[in-house]
Amino acid sequence: MNLAVTFFLAFAFSFLGSIPPGTLNLTILRLGMERKMNVAFRFALAAALIEYPYAWIALLFEDWITSSPVIVNNFTLISALVMTTLGILTLRSATRATPDAQPVRESGFRKGLVLSILNPLALPFWIGITAYLKGQGWISLSNTPEVHSYLLGISVGAFVLLILVAYLAKQMSVTFSSNPKAKFIPGVILLALGLYALVKYLLSFG
Prior knowledge:
By secondary structure, the protein is mainly α. It has one domain (3-203).
């Protein structure tokens, strides 16, 4: 499998997965609006670093889960249901009010580490995404370079999104905090991918 393709897919899903308003991007949004770019950079770096081990743990869980013969034989169906569920949950979360970001101390890095570690959605998100991408044959993660290319893409995707939010704080505060359409983008994409996999599974019986 091409390492560049693996990296790009991980980057794209990580970037899109970081779009919905949450503690991390609202915190760095505030830092950008306050022109604390050095603090924002350290905050984003800490968040991106935590994504790496979280995604690695998700890979281990995904590999263990998919080692069952029942799961292997129905992998396409299961990945379709997982992606569809993630899409629905993301769309539901986009309709809920997001709590205000907490003030950040000047270091930024420590706050980024703490908030990222306490993020409860990272593990199930990457278990589902990884299972889907492998099920569709888009990635294989069969060797160490592919695994680390995937993990690096995840970390870089999260970092780029957070830095982009910081640098475009005024515009992004409107786009991602107030615009309902922007909030629904990740959920719509996940739901579409899930339905695509479901249709592919049904057509396999034809």
